[in-house]
Amino acid sequence: MTGMTMHILLRRLAATTLSAALLLAPMADAFAAAARIKDIVDMEGIRENQLVGYGLVVGLNGTGDRLNNSPFTKQSLQSMLERLGVNTAGENVRTANVAAVMVTANLPPFGTQGSRIDVSVAALGDADSLQGGTLLVTPLLGADGEVYAIAQGPVNINGFKAQGDSATVISGVPTTGRISSGAVIEREIDFHLGSQTSLRLALRNPDLTTARRIALSINDFIGVPTATPEDPATVRVTLPRGFNGNIVDLLTDIEQLMVETDQPAKIVIDENSGIIVMGKDVRVSSVAVAQSNLTVTIAENPTIVQPAPFSNGVTAVEPSTDLEVFASDKALAVVNESVTLQELVDGLNALGIAPRDLIAILQAIKATGALQAEIEVL
């Protein structure tokens, strides 16, 4: 057993003992934001790649593309038949059992030649449904234009469409589907992770403090300077000398380390749905807020007017409108300087306002400089 290996084992034992002590200590809140390194970073080279292809789905029960409205479907069908030895040049091809589709898939990291992946299928023309259809051989291309997989197989859809003479029922989206294990990988991406001596960890939520904590945690665990924070989104890890293993062994050792993540004070607002999400570090200075609600009620009460007896008049409807305006003016309410997120929420809720009004109030408080947080509107 080398000295480096013994050093790592001793540090693992110390880390295990420390973790057990922390579990027994009443400090759960302090470590509530802790997460494994593997859950907060993406490792360089371990990534998916998007694939896309154009193909034909056949076998539809009259729910395919209308060839007069989808010339690309007609051209693709004629080209496919010519490759199979069927000459349809100059013929008026009329069929509703074929649909042009776009096929997409994700090539997993280190996918090997001959293994299978799932593919998604979506109609490109005016097909009504892909139910019962079969995708013909479709090459799937990468961003470099090379073929990485070949897709083919029966399409499974989650929706359906039923139509009669005077009614139509549609459930889900019948023009999209999925083929489980529907593509075979034909080309591998040339990347050898085990031969690397240095790679980068990309933070999914870039933050200077979190990047530094990751580097400190890794260096403390290995015992030698191994990780270096390069920027808020990147930590570079270098294979130390004397390490018993390659870069894969090193990543396996450090990906389980727990790191307390940090995040900026931010408020995320979705004005369409009225959703407001606040981070735990949001703070607000003491401010006074007033809100005025104006309610307008309009009611129509038409009156039937009858003509006098033995007259030549006709029955008529006389309109009658009741209009009421109610203004609720609330006095200034003080939102005291907050120490915690709960106190901030309690102070705003004390005003008795709706979420959409709260959005306008938060933006107004931010404009005054009393809100120490970033507001992001979706």
From TrEMBL:
Q: Which family does it belong to?
A: Belongs to the FlgI family.
Q: Does the keyword Signal apply?
A: yes
Any coiled-coil regions, as ranges: none
User: At the top level of its lineage, which domain of life is listed?
Assistant: Bacteria
User: Cellular location of this protein?
Assistant: Bacterial flagellum basal body
Protein role = Assembles around the rod to form the L-ring and probably protects the motor/basal body from shearing forces during rotation.
Please identify the protein, giving its name as recorded: Flagellar P-ring protein
Q: Which residues form the signal peptide?
A: 1-32
Please describe the quaternary structure of this protein: The basal body constitutes a major portion of the flagellar organelle and consists of four rings (L,P,S, and M) mounted on a central rod.
User: Keywords for this entry?
Assistant: Bacterial flagellum, Cell projection, Cilium, Flagellum, Periplasm, Signal
Gene for this chain: flgI1
* Species per Swiss-Prot/TrEMBL record: Devosia yakushimensis
